Amino acid sequence: MALDDSYDLSNLKNHTEELVFRIMEEELNRISDEDVCKCHDCVLDMVCISLNNLEPRYRVSLMGSIYSSAQDGSLEDNVRTVVRNSIQKISLNRAHD
Ligand SMILES: [Zn+2]
């Protein structure tokens, strides 16, 4: 039995991933294109490094977002710090010329 044949696994949402996508967008929008390469490869590398440095927070979401925002403040600060570090790391060591 394949799990994804019997269960709708798309209802599993990683809250950390959603935060990283949103905060990465905010942070990249604050930086000029001349200061950081925003090509597909570099941005995916930045997202990858960020996600690998944060704990995943999965939840089951059957009806949109029902996540409690009580602990979001400090989590968001932490994600922002990790995202900024990832942007800096990749811009100093990008995988292409
Ligand atoms: Zn690039």
Q: Helicity level, as a percent range?
A: 55-70%
Count of DSSP H/I helices: 4
- The radius of gyration over CA amounts to 16 Å
Largest sheet: 2 strands, antiparallel
The residue ranges in which pLDDT falls below 50 over 5 or more consecutive positions are none
The ordered string of helix (H) and strand (E) elements is HEHHEH
Distance between the termini: 46 Å
Helix and strand content put the structural class at mainly alpha
Can you list the strand order of the major beta sheet? 1-2
Secondary structure: elements and pairs:
Blueprint: H1 3-6, E1 12-14, H2 15-30, H3 40-52, E2 58-60, H4 72-92
Antiparallel strand pairs: 1-2
Helix pairs in contact: 2-3, 2-4, 3-4
Bound molecules: zinc ion.
Which labels suit this protein?
97 residues; mainly alpha; two-stranded antiparallel sheet; 4 helices; 6% strand; binds zinc ion
Describe the structure.
With 97 residues, this protein is mostly helical. The chain has a domain at 33-62 and 69-97. Helices cover 56% and strands 6% of the residues. It contains 4 helices and 2 strands. Helix 2 (15-30) crosses helix 4 and helix 3 packs across helix 4. It is globular. Zinc ion binds at residues 37, 39, 41-42, 94, 96. The site of zinc ion has 6 residues, from helix 3.
Short account of what is shown:
By secondary structure, the chain is mostly helical. It contains four helices and two strands, in the order H-E-H-H-E-H.
